């Protein structure tokens, strides 16, 4: 019925006998023809039944150009350099769409899975314009044999059209005889009683048959017990350090278990990770943490989370978790700062909502006692985002302690101060709230707004709104987001109020006319740009504080930097300086602690070279009151007997300072590879100088080494939302809560050891940040007067 058609052998007269390349190609072609001829007689590889060699000629010179292999099933053309590999890639791996699913006896190929068929009762016909021999394992019949009415539908082409019918479509057939005789065929369509859903079960049956027929492939070398134990330990550590991002149920996911089986590891269950393995990992981390605290001569306790949204403006973790059913439940975290600059996670306490000052004080002191044990004087201070009142009480009761408020919280509170006390800020916020509320709540206006926004900015959505005036003064994040949205949509809002449909609304709605007046008022946009620039300025500094985590010696320079930037802002936007400076100074006094001035004076990092070449402490930058604060703090931190000695040493330090060579070594800076900023090369040098080359300052030195290392921020390890959701889900179960606390401790201990203070949600959000929006804000601010 069908014969194989191949290209005729090349005419020797048409090839150049002088061209070695042409001769080599002809020889290669003839060799492949010989191999294929032998294979069709049963004396060669199976794949030659589906490949035919072709000689490609140059159309201009008719000289041989290349030898190719052509698939007789799909007409694809391949290089003839490696027929065996081509067969494996094209036929065995199923690349050829027409390759028969059944092959002649003795073939090493596996049949195509039945589940890959389009329909259990369908028959595929592949029409070809020229005759070709059927592939091994396929049945060749003329079209009139499979025609529904038994007659040829097109008599003129009955000798040129063939139907290659995949044999897996039939339950039975008679094999064709030799010499290409007509094949007898008993045609049965594959109809399954269960319908298409039977294909999966049929594929499983086929797989079982293949496994029984072919020898089982021996697996690769198995992992040793030590390798398996090590791998499971790493897996467990990763799971614990994910801290709720990966659920226990995920461990039993079929795909995850298949992965473990693929790499030669046993399955791991929820019970494995929530039992003894978790207890062991927690015990290891806890033991290491306690040992490091014992080795240190003193430490500072950091307490973060007393305020629900204490770090919200800097994308920090917020402890308000009402979305998970924990209404206003604060999640207070305690950590320990050591003199060498490292931090250790201690515990988390659930306050059950806002707490009284007395209760907060009790929790803080109980934590200090729990960490210090009998040597309570090892705790030389506390840094917390709670109110300063409780911290002052503990400081008065324990004269050796220096308790400071979180500097990050102070900067965030400054934005709240501006929103309450600066008329410009208040007016812009009220007008923005009125504008955003009207646009979002009027459906017709919102539709026009979204239409223009999609056209101009290629994004939709409404304006983020700070819910009310009271909310505006208490939540910095919502205010900043609202101002940001309005500023970025300035052009869009102009189009909306100029739209004819909006003019029709203005006839009946006085609020619409008022909003139109706000949008078309150039002064509003100038004021909005000014307020947004101020918020962005303070938020930027707060973000740097959160990332850099400065020490208390850096507090005075930070506030001085803020004053300079605010003064520049006033000049740029033509804002009166006096009211703004008053608000800044008021917040500065609320956050100020005498230890700021003392650490600034005692830290060799801030020594200044005078005209004589000496490196002296920067007393000239202190006010008279701040100089008195330094004297009083030092005398409080030493015993009464050595107070006068400490003051004498302070006078000597003020006049002599530090040897220039050591001062320069302390102040050496290097460029940070991540941020590109210049940073102190060895932050521990300031403290080490006092303990070594300044050892003659007995009393003052003990004060200096305790002050210099104290942190000015309480933010440390950040919990992710997943862990908080998990905590809330198990807070009423003693066992569940205990497991959650252990996992949090392991995760925090690991992250703080790596000095990783970020959270997973922040990292993931960075992947979806859209850069052009920032450019829009910068352009608007740049155009502002």
UniProtKB/TrEMBL annotation:
DUF7963 domain mapped to chain residues: 16-100
Name recorded for this polypeptide: DUF7963 domain-containing protein
SUPFAM superfamilies per record: Ribonuclease H-like (SSF53098)
Spans annotated as Disordered: 1-21, 118-160
Pfam families on file: DUF7963 (PF25908)
Taxonomic superkingdom: Eukaryota
Matches recorded under InterPro entries: DUF7963, RNaseH-like_sf
